[in-house]
Amino acid sequence: MGFFKSKKSAAAVDEEISELEKSSTTPNNTETTSSKQPTATTPAKTEVLDKPQETSQPSISSTTNTTTNATDDKKEIATTTTTSKKDLPTDSFIHVQVTGEKFSDKASTLLPLVSHHVKCHVTYPIVQVVSTMTFNSPHGKTIEGELVLPMPDGATMMGYAMEVNGKLVDAVPVEKEKAKAVFESEVRAGGTVSIVEKLTQASNCFKTKVYPMHPNQDKTVQVKYQMMLKEKVESKDQETGTLQGSVFIPVAYLDFEKLRSDTNIEFTLNETSLQGYETELSMSLSKFGGEKIEKENQLLWTSKNVSKRSAYFQITKNQMSENMAGFNFSIKKEATSVNDILLAVENGYFMTSVPVPKIPEQLKNQSRIGDKIQLVWDCSLSQEAAHSKKVAKLRKIIEGVGATSIELTQFSCTTIKSQTFTNIDDLLKYVESEEFVYDGGSNMLLFDKNLLNDSVDYCIAFTDGVHTFGHEIGPMCSFGKPIYFVNFSSIVNSTLLKHISTKSGGIYLNANELSDDELINSIGKPVLSFAVADFEDADLTEVYPNEPITLVEGEIFKLYGMFNKKSTNSSTKLAVSFRYGSNVFHVQELVLPISEMTQTDAPIVPYLWAQKKIECLSAFPHLFKEEIKQIGFDFRIVTDSSSLVVLEKLDQYLKHDITPPESLPLVLGEFKKLKKEEADSKLKQEQQKTERILSMWKQRVDWHKTDFKLPEIQPIRQTVNEIRLNELPSSTITSTTSEITTTGSINIYNNNNNNNNSNDLLLPPPPPPGMDAVSCPITLNEEVELCCDEECEEWCTENSADSLIMSRDECLSSPPPPPPSLSMRSDCLPPPPSSGKQSTAVPPPLSSGPPPSRPSMSSIPQSQSISRSAISPVLSRSRCAESSVTASSSLLGDIRQRNILSSSEQQSSSVASVVEESSSSVSGSISIKAWSPDATYYSLIKSSSNPYKEYLKQRKSYRDSPAFYLDVADMFLTSLNSRELGVRVLSNVAELELENVQLYRIVGYRLDQADELELAEWVFEKIKKISPHEPQSYRDLALVKERMGKYEESMKLFNRVITDKWDSRFDEIELTVATEMNHLLLKNPDLPIIDKRFIHNFDLDIRISMAWDTDMVDIDLHVNEPAPHGEHAYFAHNRTRIGGYVSRDFRQGYGPEEYMVKKAPKGTYKATTNYFSSHSQSLTGGTTILCTFFSNYMRPDEKRQMVTIRLSSHKENIEICDIEIV
């Protein structure tokens, strides 16, 4: 009782805060100065523990000083950080994703960590750690950084900060899904942002994303977490004994020698809470040599060796070791009574510490459960790194438990192989042979799906519990035999392993923290555990843990709970039961005094209660998402449902509706003021969206109803190099890039009656009524400068060397004859400085109607830049020139002859209208182009007599390449006809990086193509949970559910895409989804559609849909239609004379893009895809594309085929499909 108290007074603390503020500095300084004022991010309440006079202050100029003291009611952490630029080492837990000029096909790239400061403060029994990391980007562009942090088992992240303009800015809690959306939005906008999130597959792993990271500049982040000392009592007799506690703080580096010399680790101790304890600090070293692992602890400091108790200790880089694994801090105290019950109470919460009683001898002397065991070995790809550790322990474990029969079962995404061994030598020989392979993702659901053999006595399982592939295991799982989980990894889902082991009657063991004897003595025996806590509901509530947990004899068991505020009693009883195996052997009754509900400013016990509750719910986070999220918000803890966000400016907080941290008081005050003044127009905007989408949908339906009549064939007059563009008087066009000199002109229409800027300019049909033609001479040269009146001095391009120059003085007025038909997008006028394309939230009009109005020349601003390709594909080799190489002047007549689209009638309120009579079906075939990667490994594997063995050989060189696994999986699934191996190889992609949406989409698309629909459904469900702010997450899942026959679930997802508000870069995806909703309605007309006005039988001869896996990447769909009437359909020519329709061009990720024809003329339709550009700020490799091809879409004889391909470089074009209509 009272071990959280401090001997310092509040006045003393205030004085120390004042002194700290005077000496605080920023992370970018190279020296500590006293002239800097406290930053806006300094916590409002800060407490500092005085360092003793005999302990020298840190002499390093670049340091992070964080000290903590538990006062009567307060405990905070203060931080000052300085950095300097030196060598650039690389740390093992920093990963980066960036896109540069050359592709990196690895899932992630290491980023240098240049300085690290760790501050540890011990207030018995809590250890708080502040880790300040500075890393540097050696890349030549501004990038996004990603930091993966494996935390100690049981640790809770309590805070995060990022350096912004030289100051550490505290993070604030938001929903996990919203944090992702905010981060991606700010990266696209070029804002400063950082988030921290917890990875759901691993209970102790967190991920931090940072943007921007400028070339050759430092970026500092700070992480705060806390954990409990692990305590136990060693009894000397029934009354006296020794109380011991320890905690391991992992600190390890990949390239220790290159760390800056200012790297250090500091420890501060709360002397009051540790009074009477002996303390010591040691450095843990790990040395690996072949099969042998050596571990040793190097004593750094002990309280026995100092005459006066020291509250501060520092370890500099010179005192560390390159083989360092971390630090052990331990305490020891002689206890006069081993049955003492400790109690702490704060703010209505309590924590009680109960020593676990000794097991009665008659129970303890029971022999092991049996000698016939099953050894379950996780052979997923990520487990290969710990293979040597497992082999080194295997002989000791098997011999120690006295096993006479060992059934070895290997699993990854499926059960791989089972075989029985009767001696350890044969077993070791096998696990060290080439036949023993790590391959595939990890599927923990197999433990509930016949993986275990009920004929054995018990099971030993080597796994980290990190589930990466397939549907998750649920709380209703059951097990026939005890399971003893042994983990060797730093990233582990210990919460799940503890739940399964306890439920089965086994135990979870961390081999990294236990000695060989402790490990062996825990396996194969009945398990000591907490059984239940009985209490009166009127006095206590929410007591945790609330289910059995495994314990160790002599351990200090801690129970957390809340006093009922309505209780009128002065005390209450709590009974704690312990069992060994299935026998309850001890019940400890506690009397808890109900104190007054006094409030402290910085309590510890409520945070410990929250941490324990989250731990109890986190075995199955998908079932308790909302409850976990609320706890994270209330206590500012990073959970499976809540993340932390750092922003830079007030407008960012306003834009995303995120309350700024209290450490930014000025920003917070202005935020609250502006939020009150902000008009609430959200409801009105939601109502307007459906109407806007319906308006665009009507245009699509009108296109579908149009009967496109093909004109008579006109002879081709001239080729590109022979075209004499329509001459204007006194004007010439001179080609400086060709031996042929060409003359001609361009028509620019000046609309005097209607200044309407459209998104598609169709050049050059004759001017509609009310429009005058302005003729201007042009000259082929290095740039394009257009000038058409006094208000527009010049109009320039920046695209290519083949350009046009046109001066205002040369403009003449003679009307030209019509030139060849061209199509141009006005959003190329002008392009943004960084791209040849510019997105717009305004939907482009359908060009199958009357020609859109041209903008008045008076409306064109001076010195506007346009893409040369936007002016004329005839004169350019840019992407608009990818249309037909030859041009016909007869095309203009076709544009004039197109029917004006009339307004469609109001759709019938009856759903039956969707099944109106379809157009007659066409006969034909879909021929997928065989895609064979241009890679050496592909040909070697395919030609090998043992392809799987060759794959394993080649994998050594391509282990981190998603494309490698995709290519090989495709080979096994198709040409080698091995579905099991194909799925296993493909599942490796999910092992490369936890919760990476791009990698999951790669897997999901290929599973969908392979008709592995249940697995594809799980993948897209996972993507929806990770990225619910992207409409593609719902569409991809809806399409898979439709194929599975889950029509109602599919329709709900489609409706979400229509109604929800998305980022403007995804505008018009609703039109594609509306088409697919009608496809779904054919299968069940009674499904609830969001608005019956969307119902239309969208039957088509041909439909092609293309989506891709990478954000901020522009992939284009091109279709060459058959002669004689066919054209090249693509984003810049999106309506063709035969009725070809190309949907909106998605330039910032994912798609989908469509090509459709209702009545397709006979011939071959060739579909190609083009990797146009990438605006991604991450080092992603290539992009995986999913193309779906339909003939007779929405008709009884509909045919469907899919293909996934991989594009690995900009401007890459791949022919993907031929559709033959006969």
Automatic annotation (TrEMBL):
InterPro entries attached to this UniProt entry: DUF2135, TPR-like_helical_dom_sf, VIT
Task: List the residue ranges forming a coiled coil, or say none.
Answer: none
Q: Give the span(s) annotated as Disordered.
A: 1-86, 808-868
Lineage here is: Eukaryota, Discoba, Heterolobosea, Tetramitia, Eutetramitia
Q: Which PROSITE patterns match?
A: VIT (PS51468)
**Low complexity bias: where?**
23-36, 55-70, 855-868
Identification of the protein by name: Predicted protein
What positions does the domain VIT occupy? 97-227
Report the SUPFAM superfamilies cross-referenced here. Answer: TPR-like (SSF48452)
| Bias-annotated ranges (Pro residues) | 842-854
